[in-house]
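To the team - NDP complex, inputs and output below.
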Amino acid sequence: MIQTALITGATSGIGHATAYEFAKHGINLVLCGRRLERLNALKSALKSQTEVHILNFDVRNKQDTFNAISSLPETFKNINILINNAGNAHGLDPIQEGNIDDWDAMIDINVKGLLYVSKAIIPQMTARQSGHIINIGSSAGKEVYPKGNVYCASKHAVLAITEGMRTDLNPFGIKVSAINPGLVETEFSKVRFKGDLKADAVYKGFKALQAEDIAEIIYFVISRPNHVNIADLLVFPTAQANSTTVKKEL
Ligand code: NDP
Ligand code: 8X3
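Output:
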């Protein structure tokens, strides 16, 4: 059976690489993000391999999120796989110096946005009694590092929501998984540091995970047999032992 996956945050990094990985396997794609020109470019690049529909909305906006998902044409309406990936860190500051707009962004996007998208998709999964939801958490959802405060809180929330979903959706046979990467070289640090050159230093001196590494893992997780659910997966680059221990050669 041909499957359809909806990927949030498909314009960059992990979501972008996952779109390519899924297209390779003939999975139909609903690709979401705010940067329309990137969504259009992605559609052009992948349309020879699979069917692609793009949805251009900000997950912070509840109404836009529901409108976008309910606008899906009949052929894309049945989402079998939901990849809740859109998210970022905004800032890296001690709590006493934290920027309230950054806090709002992280809670609104990483937590509330994930909930809005899930709320829009789950009813069709419960109706069909099948589906797979993958939430992209983080090693930051398992430990709190200095100045990580609110980002770590948002990712701890993602893990709590994942467990809650897995429990509540258990009667419907829906799989729910969390994939928790450590350092992945994407636009993540550019966003966190608002374009500051500091971002370039984050992945220097060691081989960080690449977006494609996570995309392959996501495909592995969604392609297990029906009776197998990888509930929670933590992955680091070899050079990283935990959030604060990274072997760098500078
Ligand atoms: P990128 O910055 O490369 O990608 C983030 C994606 O999220 C973009 O496609 C962006 O699209 C989308 N996004 C951000 N804000 C919104 C919004 N308000 N509405 C809709 N889409 C939004 O980072 P990554 O690929 O690294 O991040 C993907 C996920 O992986 C995030 O949840 C992140 O927390 C998590 N993660 C990242 C790690 C890392 O080290 N890179 C490690 C662990 C987890 P657009 O701007 O076009 O809307
Ligand atoms: C991204 C990894 O260590 O920058 O979630 O928080 S980290």
